[in-house]
């Protein structure tokens, strides 16, 4: 059976160059970058190099603005909690969007428990944040705004540059979660005009275990993880050298190959976005029709629940994910789909294809071939579909 | 371990008794779209026995497997026996369900019981035929 | 030139079995343990296995009590901050020892900033904590005691079982940082009687990037890293599967081989501890003479500064570390040595040998051969030594 | 990069002018054991020139290399020239010092200046010989 992996958001294979770069630091170069003897030199040099590579990926002038962390989730926790705590003498109000990743959303909730106040900026039906809405939500005691660069569940890219301008006018610190975009499309922290930006290597063919938070020089932040003075005292703990090296290499490869990669992904994504609703009735595309991640095609298939769809696709060799309640371990439908105004019933039919470097046109065509009978089969079992049909008949 | 037992997978891939019964003797609905699992059970009763059962289910793998298993367990049983089918006995027959799926997706027994109640209340009203 | 690596505390090579276990999860099995399709199965199974292996290493009954984290530092931050925040309705007083690792020490300092109060329990000249001192420091509003199982800089093993008993009497939550001991000597959380315990794979030939916090069932803890509901909602972020698998394998190997490893290390350590002070005058052993880590031999060489000693040893192929001010990036002499009552002058001469699986008797003898002339050379340059000699002469 | 430049390493491994001068014309001490670096400079002055310099240093690689470099830079210079030697000019000659080492370990110039001051104050008192 054909194997078609379209769940790159959940995990993706390392590219060969990243693997090669990491291997020496997993085996022979086991030293600690802090060590003053010879064993410390290769890891120290390698971590410095990786810092430059990551700085370059996001067009940061000063590589010391890059703080390595362990995951995108950690970067977001660090940003939200660390920036809020460092600026609390000015106020205790935080603004985020209603469709942030849980790592931002729940960090903000934790800050609420510590006496902060959080406002959620709504999104429209495409998952887009209106900069005006952000501006309106800023108060005199607002100290932090965090709006994601793109939402990975529905692919929508947010107008960060426009938002940043308005936030800067109010002299409020602005963080963006760019985990879904960094390495997948060109990013310049200078052009965006943000103060802090999260990115993670596992989203662009780097390994688990290394991510980064970029914080503009001069912007204060409180550490999330205290201890030794690694990362300039901003993030403690012995460096995960192999993973950092992998992140650096992945950043370098992305800087070079981004344009080619986008050219590869976009037509495949567009084919899926246009053809699937043609092959299956009652399928809605979720997210923005144009402003979306190059590898993201997301839908809701009406009258069907996502997990059973996912499992039947899996039985045909196709890996996808879903934002349905049953597929989430929290057993709640994606807050992103709900924030976009979809009903719970429709949100349950969520299916998300995240394409990658290895995705081919044949893969897409295979999905277009196997998925309609699966949808049909589930609809034949669905009491919601039965009701719909009955109504439609009754309506005639 | 994989999240579902082999038995769950088998029933999910080949669910028994999917469909509707026209003019059923009893009909039971359970679940709602917020939690993501909805089931409708249709029963045909003869001589106090569940002569036929059909169901339609909107929901996850567990919900579909549970519906299928409930229908298989109940078919041919007396009303009293069928009312003894519980979520636990269904989960056991399915060789276990993931912890977090137990409550939400394991509504099959309730849906069947509702169908039976529906049959019984009709009986009371209409004098019954069973 | 002979290469003698005696800085295993800073980093150590992976053992072959760990490497083999990790490789498939770095390359082919790139799936996400949360994924419901086939790609999710191998990582999910592997993470479950690792959890059992780690539970077994520390004799924990329930593997769900193991929470994977990214580093020993993170485990300690999580323990101190998470346990304190979860129990603050009872009080806001925390007790730690004066020789805790910075990850515990500075987490406690952060809690001070958030309104908590911290008491430091002193240690004696050997770095031992007196359980009575701990008992005396507990107040009615004490909610957390954190005392390390062993100090990795001076090797001293603390009487955790005795301390735990006294803390339990007062119904206070007790955490121990066992990063230096777990995997290096037998540990049973049941026998120790603690409520939470930190451990890290990189201390027993596992990889960077995976560590754990064990928390007894029923003991509340607040997450440090919020987000998705990985690790039962207690530590968010996509799992670093390869590292977790490596930690699990390293735990399994340690469980099996601990006794043999200790038998290998102890005589080597003892040879260094007895012979070095014989070969070089004015050398003091730091830490406890008997209750010490099997691979730890630590000294202060008087009239000499640790970094220059370290660099000259390095020029002879020997890698060690030091607790001198110059070797620390914070430019402060080890707080551990100072807490033990050593003068700054003597603490500057700190040198730490941490032996490992690969250390041989020849390595030790090589150190005993090359180190005396190095010490002599540095003393000939030392104004402190000159003063000492002058005084000694004057005294005659 | 490695933490120390090649030049620092070279001076650390082969420090020039280590030692003491009996009955020096000037003696200067700098540093303390808390920060971990201490230096003693001895000078011999002739015709207003630093005829000989020796030092003893307790400290890190940087401290030793700095002392060595300072002695090399100052030897043969006039008092006035020697007083122009600054921590920055020493660091420059050493092809750089790690940022965190700059202040603590770069005491060589001060120690030399103290030795010169010591010489000068003796001169004032004793009428001098230089
Ligand atoms: C937008 C966004 N932010 C943050 C994260 C968190 O990443 P991780 O789970 O790898 O920590 C993700 C993960 O997919 C993401 O898509
Ligand atoms: C006792 C102790 N605790 C915690 C740590 C922190 O470990 P890491 O730097 O790997 O996070 C160490 C590191 O050596 C340690 O020795």
Could you describe the 3D structure shown?
The complex is a heterotetramer, with two copies of chain A (396 residues) and two copies of chain B (130 residues). Chain A has 13 helices and twelve strands. The longest helix of chain A has 39 residues, at 241-279. Chain A has helices at residues 16-26, 41-57, 72-86, 102-113, 131-137, 160-169, 189-192, 241-279, 306-315, 335-339, 344-347, 361-381, 383-395; strands at residues 4-5, 66-69, 93-97, 117-121, 142-146, 173-177, 196-200, 211-215, 283-285, 296-301, 318-319, 350-354. Chain A has two domains: 4-9 and 258-392, Alpha-Beta Complex (Aspartate Aminotransferase, domain 1); 16-254, Type I PLP-dependent aspartate aminotransferase-like (Major domain) (Aspartate Aminotransferase, domain 2, 3-Layer(aba) Sandwich). By secondary structure, chain A is α/β, with parallel strands linked by helices. Chain A has a seven-stranded mixed beta sheet, sandwiched between helices. A three-stranded antiparallel beta sheet of chain A has the order 9-10-12. Chain A has a two-stranded parallel ribbon with strand order 1-11. In chain A, strand 6, helix 7 and strand 7 form a beta-alpha-beta unit. Chain B is of the alpha+beta class and 130 residues long. Chain B has a single domain (6-120), classed as Sufe protein. Chain: A, CATH 3.90.1010. Chain B is 44% helix and 21% strand. Chain B has helices at 6-13, 61-74, 79-83, 87-93, 102-105, 108-126; strands spanning 26-32, 37-46, 49-58. Chain B has a three-stranded antiparallel beta sheet with strand order 1-2-3. The longest helix of chain B is centred in the C-terminal third of the chain and has 19 residues, at 108-126. The radius of gyration of chain B is 14 Å and the shape is globular. The mean pLDDT of chain B is 92. The interface between A and D is small, with 5 and 3 residues. The complex binds pyridoxal-5'-phosphate (2 copies). One pyridoxal-5'-phosphate binds at residues 9, 71-73, 76, 101, 103, 148, 152, 177, 179-180, 200, 202 of chain A.
